[in-house]
Amino acid sequence: MKMLSIPLLGLAGMLLVACASRVSEPAPAEAGLETVAQGSFVGADSSHKGEGRATLYRSPSGQSILRFTGFNVTPGPDLKVWLVARPAVASSSDVSEAETLDLGVLKGTIGDQNYVVPSDLDLDRYRTVVVWCEAFGVLFAAASFEPAG
Fold it and tell me: Is the model's pTM score more than 0.90?
């Protein structure tokens, strides 16, 4: 009989991350923030749901900030926030076939949160933000940006 070994710490870590977590970061306080683009999150499918707003801001100093508000996504392991160089994303293959930029670990599955975007990033090219499960290569939610104004 062949035995399958699963590292306990790895499995426990994935289970802990898969639980819902709440975050409530304040809006950026810098004066003169300009809204560059915004979009609404939609879930990838019936198992991976998402909702809320994604807004890109640029400060007078050139710093870009991505803010999620009213955000809620299905919990999962190893969730990351990625910008995708596509005007829209409907499937995991849309993400895996596109150029992406990793903004870091999702801070929480529920609540308002902020992510710093590299100031030299071409925001006209990266038109979608996604919540991506890096461990399994699965799309959880996506928001396509529309120019503000």
Answer: no
CA-to-CA distance for 85 and 5, rounded, in angstroms? 38
Q: Residue 85 corresponds to which tokens in the numbers above?
A: 């160089």
**Neighbouring C-beta atoms of residue 64, cutoff 10 Å:** 19
Give the chain's domains with CATH numbers: 20-147 (2.60.40.200)
Taking the C-alpha atoms of residue 23 and residue 38, their distance in angstroms, rounded to an integer, is: 20
Residue for token digits 């990838």? 44
Residue 11 CB contacts under 8 Å (≥ 6 apart), including other chains: none
Burial 25-50 (b: 16+ CB within 10 A, else e): eeeeeeeebeebbbbebebbeeebeb
Structure-block tokens of residue 37: 């683009």
Residues 73-132 pLDDT 10s: 999 999 999 999 999 999 999 999 999 999 999 999 999 999 999 988 888 899 999 999
Question: Which structure tokens are listed for 78?
Answer: 């190893």
